Structure formats: structure tokens, C-alpha cells
UniProtKB/TrEMBL annotation:
<protein>
    <submittedName>
        <fullName>Uncharacterized protein</fullName>
    </submittedName>
</protein>
<dbReference type="InterPro" id="IPR036388">
    <property type="entry name" value="WH-like_DNA-bd_sf"/>
</dbReference>
<dbReference type="InterPro" id="IPR036390">
    <property type="entry name" value="WH_DNA-bd_sf"/>
</dbReference>
<dbReference type="GO" id="GO:0003700">
    <property type="term" value="F:DNA-binding transcription factor activity"/>
</dbReference>
<dbReference type="InterPro" id="IPR050536">
    <property type="entry name" value="DtxR_MntR_Metal-Reg"/>
</dbReference>
<dbReference type="InterPro" id="IPR022689">
    <property type="entry name" value="Iron_dep_repressor"/>
</dbReference>
<dbReference type="GO" id="GO:0046914">
    <property type="term" value="F:transition metal ion binding"/>
</dbReference>
């Protein structure tokens, strides 16, 4: 998947989660692109089965589009976080570069990154629990 189409899928998902109607004009505003560019991208998303346009110009992700969000979103979040926290990039630049990197990767690699993210999240939860336990009682060290 190209980074451009991936950006559109993520933008549709983000607008949808806000509870707003998702129309081409909304996507153009969200992404800072011309409406004509949005229309071309929506045609490609529709052709590839990621999104559909309904009545009134509303856009929604298909099951395939939602699946792509589920696969790419955790990997994007991990890469974006590393780019902002470790390299000091701004949010917008980190988002753009994370999507560019993911667009160049195979789905298998993206899924591996997503699993890594899930594993890191679980380790963070456990680490917080361990630190709390250590503060509360020295005997908790054995509970690890």
C-alpha cells in the first residue's frame, strides 16, 4: 500500500472516530490537500476495496479498510512515537515519515512491528506494576 493511500485511510478512520460525517471536503481540510486530490485517492481506495462513497458524498471504510487500520495503526504509532520522542521531530513530520516508511514495507513487516508494539505495551504495564509493588513492600520483589 502506498503511503498516500495509507494516509487517507488513517484520516478517514480518525474523522469517523470523532463521530463526524466523513466527506471529501473534510478529508481535504484534514490532510491539507485539494479536493481533486481527495477524489482521485478515493477512487483508488474504492477500486482496491478499502473505502466506499455513500449517499450524500459520505465516505466510509470497508471491512478491508478497517482491517488495514488495525494492522497499520499500531506500527504507525510506534514509529511516530520514536520519531517524536527519540529524534525530536514534530508531530506532523513524524506522522508523514512514519506513513512513508510503512508504505514502503511489506505487510508482514508491518505486522511484526505491530506485534512488537503490543509486546512493548504489555511490558510497560508489567513494569508499572512491578515499580508500584516495590514501593509498597520489599517482599513484593519475589512476586515478579
Amino acid at each position: 500500500m502506498t503511503s498516500s493511500l495509507l494516509g487517507y485511510i488513517m484520516a478517514i478512520d480518525a474523522l469517523d472516530k470523532k463521530g463526524a460525517r466523513v466527506r471529501s471536503v473534510d478529508l481535504a481540510g484534514s490532510l491539507g490537500v485539494a479536493r481533486a486530490s481527495v477524489c482521485k485517492a478515493l477512487d483508488r481506495l474504492s477500486e482496491n476495496g478499502y473505502a466506499v462513497r455513500g449517499e450524500g458524498g459520505n465516505v466510509r471504510l470497508t471491512a478491508k479498510g478497517k482491517e488495514a487500520v488495525g494492522i497499520y495503526s499500531p506500527a504507525r504509532d510506534l514509529l511516530k512515537g520514536a520519531l517524536t520522542e527519540k529524534l525530536g521531530l514534530g508531530e506532523a513530520r513524524a506522522e508523514k515519515e512514519a506513513l512513508a516508511a510503512l508504505g514502503a514495507m511489506s505487510t508482514d513487516t508491518v505486522q511484526r512491528i505491530a506485534r512488537l508494539y503490543g509486546g512493548a505495551e504489555e511490558r510497560d504495564k508489567n513494569a508499572v506494576g512491578i515499580r508500584t509493588c516495590q514501593r509498597a513492600s520489599e517482599s513484593c520483589k519475589d512476586a515478579r
